[in-house]
Each structure stands twice: as C-alpha cells, then as structure tokens.
Specification:
The structure is a single chain. This protein is an alpha/beta fold and about 140 residues long. It has a domain of about 70 residues: Nucleotidyltransferase, domain 5 (2-Layer Sandwich). The chain is built from four helices and five strands. Strands 3-2-1-4-5 form a five-stranded mixed sheet, covered by helices on one side.
Length: about 140
Amino acid sequence: MAIGTQEDSEAMMSEINMIPFIDVMLVLLIIFIITVPVIKHAVNIDLPRASNEKVLDKPENVRLSVAADGAYYWNDAPVEDADFEQHLLDTAAQEPQPELHIRGDKAVRYERVAQAMAAAQRAGIRKIGFITEPDSP
C-alpha cells in the first residue's frame, strides 16, 4: 500500500477551499451592517439654493467706471477729479448707503483704480464691489 499516490493528490486538488471566500464575505457583511445605519440616519437639513444668474444692478447701486485713459464716469456720466470726492461724500451720507460698483478698463493703470478706492474709503463708503466680464468658453 503506497501512501500519497497520484490518485490521492488529484482528489485533494479538485476541491475548492471555501474558507478564504467565507472570510471575505463575512468581512463585507460586517462592513455593510455598520455603514447602512450611518447612511440612513443622516441629519436632515434644508440647504439654501443658489443660482448663478447675473446680478442685476439695484437702482441704489452706484456704478463708477474708470476708462482706459483714466477718466471717471459716475453712473455713465463723466465726472471731473475735483467733483469726484463730492459725489463720494454725497453717496456715503445716504441712508441706506448704496454699494459702489467699480468697473475698471483692463488697459487702465491700476493707480487710477486704487485712487478711486482710497477716495471712497476716505469718504466713508462701506461696500465696494468690482464688476468683471465672465470668461467666454
């Protein structure tokens, strides 16, 4: 009688070892048992909605445009440098105070825009915004 014959070794190789498969399935089952209650018991909150629509200028907003040559335009009307600070003081005195929207030409020197911002700060304007064009695809 021979121990470990070829027939015995073929019989042992024909069976699939199910132990690793069962271990993996039990681990996955435990993961699902732990994660499903966490997913179902999330805190229900009502999130705010936001749109990416263009913001329309309110009538109380002031549009300050700085042209490429450095000239100021107050609501599309040309303004001299001497009258510019008086316009800012009048705007700062209004209640509620309007927003100042600055539209600077891309070719204008930054110095002119910075001067306008500094004059607005000295006048007491609290809300200053910059208007830009959206990138075209």
